[in-house]
Design goal:
about 120 residues, 7 helices, mainly alpha, single chain
Length: about 120
């Protein structure tokens, strides 16, 4: 795969991962948690709709989809799609670093296996 196409694939993956990170941050913010605690659905919807992190996450998600459409028009699906798994590695690391989520040896091994698999597929195309 040409470097430009790999860059396009990685841009889509990065935008997707950033979207998940922003959505997590938005949905665990103080204001959203307070709205969830009230069990008032309209208030919760309004609060979520006003969260800049949620809106940024949704925007990144949409941009990722648009870039992915460009990828699919140029790259075989069997070559491009395995790169999506890199998002798992990125979001797992973000969970650890940004949200203090637990990170076990099993998770570390899984991330290493995912990255190795993506590298093998990338080198074979």
């Amino acid at each position: 795969m040409k470097a430009g196409l790999v860059s396009l694939v990685l841009l889509s993956v990065a935008l997707s991962a950033i979207s998940q990170i922003a959505l997590k941050a938005g949905m665990t913010s103080q204001s959203v948690r307070a709205a969830i605690a009230t069990s008032n659905t309209p208030a919760l919807i309004a609060t979520v709709a006003q969260s800049w992190l949620v809106l940024a996450g949704l925007t990144c998600f949409g941009l990722s989809a648009l870039v992915w459409l460009a990828v699919l028009s140029k790259v075989p699906l069997s070559s491009a799609y395995p790169f999506v798994a890199l998002g798992i590695a990125i979001t797992t690391a973000a969970g650890l670093l940004l949200f203090n989520e637990p990170f076990s040896a099993a998770k570390a091994a899984g991330v290493v296996l995912i990255v190795c698999g993506v590298v093998v597929i990338a080198l074979s195309t």
